[in-house]
Amino acid sequence: MERKYEYLIGKYQRRFLDEKFRNYKINRSEAPYLKVIYLHGTIRMNDLIHKLFFHKSHTTRVINSLVNDGYVDKIVDPDDKRGFILSITNKGKVIAQKIVEVLDEWDKLMESFLEKAEIDFLLKMQKKAYERLKIYFQEGDEDGETN
Fold first, then answer.
1. What is the pLDDT of residues 52-67, one digit of tens each?
2. Is residue 35 within 8 Å of 99, Cβ to Cβ?
3. I need a surface site. Which of 2, 65, 99, 132 has the fewest CB within 10 A?
C-alpha cells in the first residue's frame, strides 16, 4: 500500500500545528492533553491515557511539563493513591481555547479540499483498517475488551 501521501499529509499537519502552537509556547505533543483536560475540566490521569491512546510514560512526561508550565494542576487521587486527578488552571484555559481553535482551523482546511462524502469514506476506511488490525493483533479496544 502506498504510504507516500499519508506521510506527506502528516508532514504538513505537523508543520501547520508547529507554526500555530509556537505563538502559544506549547508543542504539538502537549496540545491533545491540554485539549482533553480543558474539555473535561477535571479528569483522572488513567482516563486521560485511555482517551488519547499514548503510553503512560509519555503521558507522565507531558503532564509534568504542563504542570511545570502552570497549565494543569495534579493532585493525588483520593480513591487511588497511585493515581492522579488533573484539572486545568485559568492559565491553561486560555491556551486550551487557542488549541481548540487551531485544531478546528486544521480540520476546516482539510475539509475545504474534500467533499463530505469523501471525508465520510476516508473515516470509514480508517475505522475498517483499525478494526481489522485490532483483530489481527488480538487486542481489545480502548475499553479493554478483546474481540
1. 988 899 999 999 999 9
2. yes
3. 2
